[in-house]
Design brief:
The complex is a heterodimer of chains A (347) and B (318). Chain A has 347 residues and is mostly helical. Chain A has 18 helices and no strands. The longest helix of chain A is centred in the middle third of the chain and has 37 residues. Helices cover 32% and strands 17% of the residues of chain B. Classes of the chains: A mainly alpha (347), B alpha/beta (318). Chains A and B meet through α1, α9, α10, α13 and α15 of A and α1, α2, α3, α5 and α6 of B.
Chain lengths: 347, 318
């Protein structure tokens, strides 16, 4: 009979497995972050992005198709991009969408739901709903964030790099977000042009290819260690839950659309699975309705135990709490609503 | 402890410690039950790359590692120099300890497998469609394609049955027409003939193969009554029967963290002695399928011989 019981050997096994799965991608993301820092001029980012906040945000939701990232690796990348002057609305949208809107995850979602009760649920339906809901939420959150002032949600460390004398100049000179965006107001409030300072900084950051590579490695290392610290803490908490709580304890939640949807979201939060494999795990919950699985697959890549810690590197705790609450409520309510009128919600 | 130590050496040491762990697990083979084969390669790459990154950190010039505007940025090591400047060396040591002690402690404590408790907690996978077909050794069956010969290497070819001919149209008086012999007879190829054989000629299968066979009429017929050998972990019957047990294999999608057990019900040849719970056993016996009331089939194994064995090279299926 399944029991709640802590088992240190199993926790250690699950914890190491989680780290071994995440570390390569975390390192990959951190090195990309370092390369962005060393090789991508800040002005280039805003030059290629549309000026309209709405268009830029929508486009950012699809960036994962070109630059696929998992939810662990994307955090250091967007932190660096924000420091480089990417509008935070675009960064947040990319952060929330990239773990799902990428070829690997879309393919694994399709495969995971292939061959099960085709008369009730086709794999392309699950894929379509997952992609659609993720896009809607990522874009919605991004647009909402564009209405906020950066100091309302960005962590002090990120704000400090934006407001520092050199970075402030670089950011303001190179980035030209939409004029009506509060971000623009925030940046515009900084001191006026300092071309000398900009040139000095660019000289400092462009010491030849080898020098740039050293910059990339050093920045990548720093980002990796920052994120790894939170991964260790989050991974440990996840492993405790993952090995100690019996799955049978969740079965009573399956019968009701409310409990099944919010129960599966709680599970996604606690298990902190990689988005490349979560569809296979969701598919094994055969007694849970479609809407609950959709909630699991939509929330998991956006919010889980380890991500809460990782988000601390970019956002203020109050914003993270608000984001978490909003994601849970929006995804939960949408999925419960879906369960009410879609015939394919029959388990 | 000078500024350079906290800014570069300590972070570089942390990276090297992680690299050492990854490389140790990879080259010792201990990594096998933790992640799937493709993820092992990623771990190897990360293990090799981390010292390079550490070197880059040590060699980077001070102006590059910490720019003035980052001095007040809260982080663990990214602004290590700033912390040193701010007198936060204790926090840096704490970060170093958090990043090293848990992973090395976990490596020392773990037995590289789950206990019965966790396996039971995770619940058995009973639905074959929850497992990717690549997990087993059973050749995939494509009923709409013509039969194909096995590959030269003797590997499964993925096809084993020709399409069923359409039934003849009814005659003018409405009576069903007889199936004439004009159509080519259905050519079926037994999928098990492409599976590896054991020393005594029995078919070597994985636990998941029986689940796959149960949901496919053709495969089930191929399996039914044939002699197989299969390796797994011994889990005593929940009801306490000495003549029944379950043969368990863990199946993982990416890593052990998402692994779930797959079980095959076994009828023992007699009372079993000297086999420990979750000990590895090799069974030889006959595959059977029980028809359930809802039309499904449940596989079970009539064991003729149960012998303790060494764990396979891959203790996890994936």
């Amino acid at each position: 009979m399944p029991r709640f019981e802590l088992h240190p050997q199993d926790i250690a096994f699950s914890f190491l497995a989680l780290l071994f799965e995440a570390i390569p991608f975390l390192l990959f993301g951190s090195l990309i972050s370092g390369l962005i820092e060393a090789f991508v001029p800040a002005r280039w980012i805003t030059r290629v992005l549309p000026k309209q906040v709405f268009v830029a945000t929508v486009l950012s939701a699809f960036l994962g198709l070109i630059f696929p990232m998992c939810e662990c690796g994307v955090v250091p990348v967007i932190r660096r991009l924000i420091k480089k002057g990417l509008p935070v609305s675009s960064a947040v949208t990319y952060m929330l969408s990239a773990p799902v809107i990428n070829p690997v995850v879309m393919f694994s979602t399709y495969i995971a739901f292939t061959g099960r009760n085709p008369e009730l649920l086709l794999p392309e339906q699950m894929l379509g709903f997952r992609v659609g809901l993720t896009l809607l939420i990522a874009i919605g959150v991004g647009l909402f964030v564009s209405r906020l002032r950066p100091e309302q949600f960005l962590a002090e460390g990120v704000l400090a790099t934006l407001a520092g004398p050199k970075r402030r100049t670089l950011t303001r000179l190179s980035s030209q977000p939409a004029a009506d965006a509060p971000e623009a107001d925030f940046l515009a409030a900084e001191p006026t042009n300092q071309p000398e300072a900009l040139a000095e900084l660019e000289r400092e950051l462009e010491p030849g290819i080898l020098g740039k590579l050293r910059v990339a490695l050093a920045r990548g290392a720093a980002d990796f260690l920052d994120v790894a610290l939170y991964l260790v803490i989050g991974g440990l908490l996840t492993s405790i839950f993952n090995t100690s709580v019996p799955r049978e304890a969740l079965e009573p939640f399956a019968a009701n659309p409310w409990t099944s949807t919010f129960g599966m979201m709680g599970l996604a939060f606690a298990l902190a699975l990689c988005s490349t494999s979560d569809a296979f795990v969701a598919a094994t919950f055969t007694t849970f309705p479609f809407s609950a699985k959709l909630a699991f697959l939509t929330l998991g890549p956006m919010l889980d135990v380890k991500l809460i810690f990782l988000y601390r590197l970019v956002f203020r705790p109050r914003f993270i709490a608000g984001l978490a609450l909003a994601l849970v409520l929006i995804i939960g309510l949408v999925c419960v609503r879906l369960s009410a009128f879609l015939p394919l919600t029959i388990p | 402890m000078n500024h350079r130590f906290f800014a570069r050496v300590l972070p570089a040491l942390t990276l090297c410690a992680w690299s050492a762990l990854l490389l140790y697990f990879y080259f010792s083979g201990r990594i096998n039950p933790y992640v799937t084969a493709s993820f092992r390669l990623y771990c190897l790459a990360a293990g090799l790359l981390l010292p390079v990154v550490a070197l880059g950190l040590v060699l980077a010039s001070r102006g590059v590692v910490v720019t003035p505007e980052e001095e007040c940025e809260p982080s663990s090591f990214g602004n290590a120099a700033s912390r040193a400047n701010a007198g936060l060396r204790g926090a840096q040591w704490l970060a170093f300890l958090i990043l090293t002690i848990p992973i090395y402690a976990a490596a020392a404590v773990t037995k590289d497998s789950f206990s019965v408790l966790t396996i039971m907690n995770r619940g058995f996978v009973e639905d074959a469609s929850a497992i990717p077909r690549s997990a087993g050794t059973l050749p995939a069956r494509a009923a709409t394609k013509p039969a194909a010969a096995p590959s030269a290497a003797g590997q499964p070819t993925g096809t084993a049955q020709r399409p069923m001919p359409e039934p003849p149209l009814p005659t003018a008086d409405g009576k069903p027409a007889e199936a004439d012999g004009g159509l080519p007879p259905t050519e079926r190829v037994d999928g098990t003939q492409f599976m590896r054989r054991g020393a005594d000629g029995s078919i070597a299968a994985e636990v998941v193969d029986f689940l796959f066979a149960a949901v496919d009429d053709g495969n089930r017929k191929d399996f039914e009554g044939k002699k197989f050998e299969v390796v797994g972990q011994f889990l005593p019957d929940k009801g306490g029967s000495k003549l029944k047990f379950q043969l368990v294999r863990m199946f993982m999608f990416c890593c052990a963290s998402d692994a779930r057990p797959v079980a095959l019900a076994v009828d023992a040849p007699g009372t079993l002695e000297g086999i420990s719970e979750m000990g590895w056993v090799k069974l030889t016996g006959v595959a059977k399928f029980r028809a359930e009331a809802d039309g499904r089939f449940t596989p079970y194994f009539q064991a003729e011989r149960v012998t303790p064995t060494e764990p396979p090279a891959e203790t996890m299926l994936y």
